[in-house]
Amino acid sequence: MSKRRSVGRCRDRSADSLGPEMNDRISKDDVEKVARLALLHLEPSELETFTGQLAAILDHASDMGQLDLSGVEPMTQPVPLSNVMRADEVGELLDRGDVLASAPCSEDGQFRVPPVLGEPS
Amino acid sequence: MTHDGATTYPTATAIAEAVAGGTLSASAVLDAHLARTAASEGTIHAFNHTDDDAARQRANEIDARVSAGEDVGPLAGVPIVIKDNICTKGVPTTCSSRMLDGWIPPYDATVVRKLAAAGAVTVGKANMDEFAMGSSTENSAFGPTLNPRDTTRVPGGSSGGSAASVAAGFAPVALGSDTGGSIRQPAAFCGLVGVKPTYGLVSRLGLIAFGSSLDQIGPLTHTVADAALVLDVISGHDSGDSTSLPTPAPRVSAHLDDGVAGLRVGLVRELMGDGIAPEVLASVNQAAEALVAAGAIVEEVSLPTIDYSLSAYYIIAPAEASSNLSRYDGVRYGLRVDAPTTGEMMERTRTQGFGDEVKRRIMLGTYALSAGYYDAFYGTAQRVRAVIRGDFDAVYNNVDVLLTPTTPTTAFKLAEKVSDPMAMYMNDICTIASNLVGQPSMSVPFGLDSDGLPIGVQLMAPTLGETTMFAAAAVLEAAQPLGSQLGSPRTLVANEGGL
């Protein structure tokens, strides 16, 4: 549903310290930078399309700025489990040959990659 | 091709009883399903991978064990389809992505092991939206799946191949995964029962991760009893999954006949208005009346911040996805596009290996997690998530379960929404809150629209409230208008030629 109803927790957006950042419109430069961080190459036409689409999604998400979240702890996961450990016993292990068989390139029981050192930054 | 509502397929419950009792062979059951697959898979495209010979061998093995007097388990001879993001040892698992084309998992997911131990026969790996990102199965690198109820329409997604395979009679059961509605929405679009269990109830060892604080595996079936049967097999603690609940799993099958006398049911006001198709609303109201007729007390309730769940979800899920999908770099799995240096190789591999929706979400998540925006987007979304959970906790002080639409509309046309991501995301408005709060929910078929397309209604329950939720679902199923489902009569297998 696209309409926002006014709810008890709403407050004036202009008073929202998170608002300004969330309402900054994502730019083509931002998208280019994010693509680089994510190791994705975008053609100029893709950059255009993705920037428009990401802006529309982020615009929608900026409605969260309407809520008063002061004093609310972030919820990272639904179940409050932490530092879960299983018993320290040797279990069933994956076969190295099976694992490497599905890798793009392997040698001497290891994953093989092209040169890493000395590559242009 | 449009099926009429009278088409029926045997249920998993009936098949397992007949096979275990020796009145029907697993091989005969399998052959009937393979014949239907051969006849219409060319049109539907539910599968990424099938291996009929391996399935036949497995069915023969079950039959031999039954003949030897062995108890082969509660899913004796039941054909089952596995979504292609769940690892199957020695069998390709692609997530419908070029990125994993050719990758063969070296182990079985815990759910696959449990199904095998219960006597099920895996028949194939189901098509899906790439890495489970989408609501129509049009984001598959291997082409879309069509809805068996109307092949001009999508089956929903991301578990669209799973839903279509059950709706078309290729198997009575499929496993899907649900991060924001990916089991329930396709179940609604295809006229099936689809369940998203409590977060942590079903092991995710071997489920290829999308949004780790949201993902759950669950069944898609023709009937509520079949869904209960399968859930009871796959649920339970797994030391191989650090998010697996340490508490004993509820046994839902034992509570299907509990009824709803005195049960307090909340109709969620915010999901009963603008943006929901009138015919869908009519079905939800009719479902509420059916519960009242069975002794439940239905009242309107409010989840005041549920409208913000879409915003929180489309920050949190992409943030988690961008992290989870960083492992696809051309080194360990599947695709590598060669280049002179490792850095270039990784960029070319990711650029060619991922489709547009996956790239969109990786970039959105990377942006939301990047310096300067982390607290504004990701931090805010996590706080909104806490507030929404608080709303749910408050409402469950007064009611036992919630009733809502599963989807704003019935199945939409192919290509109708695929070029507008925001329009596609709006489709998840009724389902995503359950994933954010980590509580169980399920879609049950309830009526048809004027085009003859199935309508799904959604039940939600508090953490580990599966038994109550299933009892209510069973009441709705018994009261549902004719034609809602393709499959059903439980007596089918006992009848001659009922397969």
List the helices and strands and how they pair.
The complex is a heterodimer of chains A (121) and B (499).
Chain A: H1 19-23, H2 28-37, H3 44-61, H4 96-101, E1 106-107, E2 110-111
Antiparallel strand pairs in A: 1-2
Chain B: H1 12-20, H2 26-44, E1 47-50, H3 52-67, E2 79-83, H4 110-117, E3 121-126, H5 160-167, E4 173-178, H6 184-190, E5 193-196, E6 216-221, H7 224-234, E7 264-268, H8 278-293, E8 297-301, H9 309-324, H10 342-353, H11 356-369, H12 374-395, E9 401-405, H13 421-426, H14 432-437, E10 441-448, E11 454-460, H15 466-479
Parallel strand pairs in B: 2-3, 2-4, 7-8, 7-9
Antiparallel strand pairs in B: 1-3, 4-6, 5-6, 5-10, 9-11, 10-11
Helix pairs in contact in B: 2-3, 9-11, 9-12
Question: What can you tell me about this protein's structure?
Answer:
The complex is a heterodimer of chains A (121) and B (499). Chain A is built from four helices and two strands, in the order H-H-H-H-E-E. With 121 residues, chain A is mainly alpha-helical. Chain A has a domain at 10-69. A two-stranded antiparallel sheet of chain A has the order 1-2. In chain A, strand 1 (106-107) and strand 2 (110-111) form a beta hairpin. Chain A is flat, with a radius of gyration of 23 Å. Chain A starts with 18 loop residues before the first helix and ends in a 10-residue tail after the last strand. Chain B is α/β, with parallel strands linked by helices and 499 residues long. Chain B has one domain (12-307, 383-494): Amidase signature (AS) enzymes, CATH 3.90.1300. Chain B has 15 helices and eleven strands. Chain B has helices at 12-20, 26-44, 52-67, 110-117, 160-167, 184-190, 224-234, 278-293, 309-324, 342-353, 356-369, 374-395, 421-426, 432-437, 466-479; strands spanning 47-50, 79-83, 121-126, 173-178, 193-196, 216-221, 264-268, 297-301, 401-405, 441-448, 454-460. In chain B, strand 10 (441-448) and strand 11 (454-460) form a beta hairpin. In chain B, helix 9 packs across helix 11 and helix 9 packs across helix 12 (374-395).
